[in-house]
Amino acid sequence: MNVRFLVVVVTLTAVIGSALGLVYTRHDSRRLEVQLGEQENQRDDIIAEWSRLQLEQAMLADAGQVEIKARDHLGMRSPDNAKILVVKP
Amino acid sequence: MSKSSAMSSEEKPGAPMSRLYAFLLAMVLCSVALIARAVNLQVTESEFLQGQGEARFMREVEVPTRRGNIQDRWGEPLAVSTPVDSVWVHPGELLQAPESIAPLAEVLGADADEIERKLNQRSGREFVWLRRRLHPDVASRIEDLDLPGVYLQKEYRRFYPAGEVAAHIIGFTNIDDVGQEGLELTYNDWLQGKPGLRRVIRDRLGRTVEHSELLREAVHGHDLTLTIDRRLQYLAYRELKRTVLKHGARSGTAILLDIQSGEVLAMVNQPGFNPNQASGDTDGMRNRALTDVFEPGSVMKPFSVAAALEAGIVEPDTPIDTTPGTINVSGHTISDHRNYGPIDVTRIITKSSNVGATKLALELQPEQLWSVYDRFGFGEVTGVGFPGESAGVLRNYRRWRRVEQATLSYGYGLSVTALQLASAFAALADEGRLRRPSLIQGADNPPVSVMDPKIAREVAAMMETVTGPEGTGRAARVTNYRVSGKTGTSRKASAAGYASRYIATFAGFAPSSEPRLVGIVTINDPSAGEYYGGSVAAPLFSTIMSGALRLLDIPPDDYAGVLAQAEGEEEKTELAAGMTAEMNNDSVNDVPGGTATEALSDLDQVAE
Lengths: 89, 608
What we know:
The complex is a heterodimer of chains A (89) and B (608).
Chain A: H1 2-61, H2 63-73
Chain B: H1 2-44, H2 46-57, E1 58-63, E2 70-71, E3 77-89, H3 91-95, H4 101-108, H5 112-121, E4 128-131, H6 136-145, E5 150-159, H7 167-170, H8 182-186, H9 188-192, E6 196-202, E7 208-216, E8 224-225, H10 230-246, E9 251-258, E10 264-270, H11 288-291, H12 301-311, E11 319-321, E12 326-329, E13 332-335, E14 342-344, H13 345-351, H14 354-363, H15 366-375, H16 402-409, H17 418-429, E15 433-434, E16 448-449, H18 453-464, E17 484-494, E18 497-510, E19 517-524, H19 533-551, H20 561-564, H21 569-584, H22 593-607
Parallel strand pairs in B: 2-8
Antiparallel strand pairs in B: 1-6, 2-3, 3-4, 3-5, 6-7, 9-10, 9-19, 11-14, 12-13, 15-16, 17-18, 18-19
Helix pairs in contact in B: 4-6, 10-19, 12-14, 12-15, 12-18, 13-18, 14-16, 21-22
């Protein structure tokens, strides 16, 4: 009788405990879900930003642009052969 | 009274009893009906109903993936996907507020009436693309307008920062991000990735309330690294375009190949196209270096001479008499530019003598000549992995007529692609080691020996005389470097025989002492007067090669070259003055005095 009572009490406690646990984990998983979503969005934004920067960098480093800058704005030119000194190893 | 009361007391219990039964019956029937309905709903129709219910709030949402980038050998981007906004509308919602169409049209730069007509036609639908891949400014202005029934959707758009310069190699994608041409097509699966699928619960307003499960993990696209060097690609493209314009040519191609690895460093064509706004003009979209074949002409002579050397019938200095500058083969006359008289085998290459090449070829068994061409990869696709690559045509030697054997020795009667030429010349330059050319970094191209190294070296040495004082390719010289090569000028075959239209070619490599780069230049149908390979293609080769050698930091192998150029006394003084000026300059203080003195003493020797 006493043993039976104990079994019932223990089982009941376990059931209530697991129910509470379920509620808690469920809540936790939703919270993490939201967090994950936020971080994924953040990641996507960063990747997007990165690809835009890459494009910008490529545009600025474009050989044609560099050439125009060097030749027209800075007045640079390749040296003629007379100005090139070959240093033998 | 009592009777009546008795009557009533007798009747009263009877009536309620029957009513009670009737009532109970009705109750039981009701319960049965309820239970039956419950069973019906719970058991029979539950699947349908549950599905319907879930359909109200469960959604399967695609997890978008990004297409991989394409970059050059140094990681410089050549194709990049970046998210942009596309605008779509719910026609019903927008048409309820017709006054909002005008500001929308204004932002999009479109006609308001046209938009309204479009929406009226599709008023039964819930989703209509209005404009895809907007400029970020336009997208933010639309967002600010906050119109009913107008929504923005993120989509990836592909940008090609190198534009037309690398367009032929990379190709482009369509509006749904699927590769249509070039490497975008070949490596579509690698680049594309697979969109994931996720089931979510959404509320009435379309907000995601809960992610219930991930049905399929999203696989992002992989990046692709090419062997192309963007700087060389740009240089080659700019110079090719200039040459094609200058000579009024129909088209042109230039290729730069790394001899020691078979990697394509630059591959450019004219006409070109802008991959950022690909239109219907497909003529400019072909990667002619791989898809178009042509009769190569004299650039094949190194291979036919190699066949003669391999057969052991001649040595590089064996005399061949080409008098009188023409030769008759089965009723066809083959002629030289002029009568070169008795010359040796080397000078057949130097002077590009058709008669000399013919005489050598007719001494050979057809199989011997064919075998060399075949081993160097002519008539077969190079396997570079590009859509629409041509194999060219090299007919089997069993079907050759005698005159064909003669014409094949100087490059007529077969057709090749520019890349085949590049790969064959690379093999010749690298002591007969043929590699499969590659466009993708990391490809494994073990060399296959296709010729005795000694013979390959002999032929390479002959080719160096082409840029020598008497050669046809003097314009291909590069200051401070030794250059080997071969010019070619072939007449184009047309329906009415050979027309007076030409293809000017130069194929060569540098530095000759230790070849690193092969360059192929072909200019198709130059119409501004000049059409020789030596005068149209060779100067372009020289410009591209000198830029490439400098950019890749390849050490010069002809130190005296800079001095050999100074032939007159005047130039010598100028040169010496220039050098002294350089030495006095602070920026070159660390140049060892000995070297400069040496250079100056070299200078004196040249002048003597």
